[in-house]
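Re: weekly structure request thread

Next one in the queue (397 aa):
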Amino acid sequence: MAKIEVSPGIYWIGVNDRTTDLFEGLWPITQEGVSYNAYVIADEKKVLIDMAKDLKGDALLDQIAEVVDPASLDYIVINHMEPDHTGVVRTMRRIAPQVQFLCTKRAKSMLENYYRITDGIHVVKHGEVLNLGSHQLKFYITPMVHWPETMMTLETTGGVLFSCDAFGGYGALQGAIFDEDYEDLSFYEREALRYYANIVALFPKAVLKAIDKLADAPIKVVAPSHGLVWRKDPQRIVNLYTKWAKCALGELEPGVTLLYATMYGNTEKMVEAVAHGVARAGVPVDVFDVRHTHVSYILPSVYTRRGVLIGAPTYEGELFPPMAHVLDMILRKRIQGRDVAYFGSYGWSGGARREIATLVEKLQWHLFQSWEFLGGASADKLVQAEELGYRFAQSLK
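Done, posted below.
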């Protein structure tokens, strides 16, 4: 994509990535892609804000050259040190040896550890201001959104907030970069939630503290490093991040995430009955077969909804491994304070229920009911399953 003016003298010069399969080597983006948004301010002083990973170095340099000669850059603002934002930093230093890096104190040490860069670095303080000519930068230190060295940078003249990973999302840009250019924002909002649940969810208090620091900032544009640039309604993405951060503090939707895994179909038959019971109670339900759905797509539902139903059989005296993997990831993301019920079949021995009880205790979830049944899904068991779903959904109201 060609350069795009975000505000007078400020240009988006980012690149799309439609070839990477796993973001952070973990989260699938094969279908959705991702953008690495970088920005140039062309003024008396020329500034590059954020960069891209090393595999996109040539494309990024071509984009920068559409606005300014890369060799003429005065400053590079490093809001976040993760390699998808700094992968080309040594290349930039070779091209522009005079360039000064602007970053936090913690980022300075990371520049040495990651890239062996120790000179030409200015450590900025919270609230520090830098005049560029007709533009002005103000720096906000926002640690743990989502690394300890992160900051955000506000261009005060145009009110453009360069927020790096905060307010970002998965999804390559479909020919346009602004929220105003899309009639339907559901794809980008869904991918922003998935990004939040995958990447940022572990740090809700830090997110809310960062938003509070920005409360009086004259923000007219939110320009993150991934996903849409929010220019028509910048508060929209800020409000969504506020809402999602508060999920970790107990402000949850009264919906149900139904997770299931089945070996020979017995548990799966019960799933349909349980889901019908939830729907009959008038409560929304998301159903995921964890054998075929990457946990990346499951986490947003679990993160935002109060109720979790788990359907999985016993396998060799323990919980069926695909379900155990998903619950382990939920535990790692510290998604606490949910209401949960369990159901599952067993053949010659139970055991999954015991493991569920242990996991629920670790997660600090409230166990509504745990039900193991022997063998297949008989007519009377299907009735019990529907009733379980109904009663559980009612309890969430």
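The chain has a mean pLDDT of 96. The longest helix spans residues 379-396.
Next request, please.
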